[in-house]
UniProtKB/TrEMBL annotation:
<protein>
    <submittedName>
        <fullName>Phage tail-like protein</fullName>
    </submittedName>
</protein>
<dbReference type="InterPro" id="IPR010667">
    <property type="entry name" value="Phage_T4_Gp19"/>
</dbReference>
<dbReference type="GO" id="GO:0005198">
    <property type="term" value="F:structural molecule activity"/>
</dbReference>
<dbReference type="InterPro" id="IPR011747">
    <property type="entry name" value="CHP02241"/>
</dbReference>
<dbReference type="Pfam" id="PF06841">
    <property type="entry name" value="Phage_T4_gp19"/>
</dbReference>
Length: 138
């Protein structure tokens, strides 16, 4: 098969993705969960409207306090809402599926667990609520 172009359709791997918080790429996230939307029945037909929170997990970096700064703004009686864009990428780095969380804000930030005998990477997570979810395939 040398010299032939691959024409079959293959599923995209889930490990190659990017996350943007408020227009800034935060490529350090290692896991995203909760990209759910649910259709509910109404008298006029199904309506997309029920969404859950999305959880983002990443390794703790010594000089990275962006998530803590974002949640601290809420503690000061303001809600700093941002657009969060999660993109599933192909092997060339092009977006193939995009989840856009509009007017998102952090609801919970979980620091790493600490264990003196452990040798794992320290991981923190942020749970994000949002008003609407737009799914697109560019």
């Amino acid at each position: 098969m040398s010299g032939e172009t691959q024409t079959s359709i293959w599923p995209l791997p889930k490990f190659y993705f990017s996350v943007q918080l408020g227009g800034t790429t935060a490529a350090t996230f290692q896991e995203v969960t909760g990209l759910d939307t649910e259709a509910t029945a109404s008298a006029t037909g199904p309506v997309l409207g029920k969404v859950g929170n999305v959880t983002l997990r990443k390794g703790v970096l010594a000089n990275d306090s962006a998530l803590w700064n974002w949640i601290n703004q809420i503690q000061l009686n303001t809600i700093a809402r941002q657009t969060v864009v999660i993109s599933l990428l192909d092997e060339t780095g092009a977006s193939k599926r995009v989840w856009t969380l509009n007017n998102a804000w952090p609801t919970k930030l979980t620091g790493t667990d600490l264990k003196s005998e452990g040798n794992e990477v320290a991981v923190e997570s942020v749970e994000v609520a949002y008003e609407t979810l737009v799914i697109s395939a560019p």
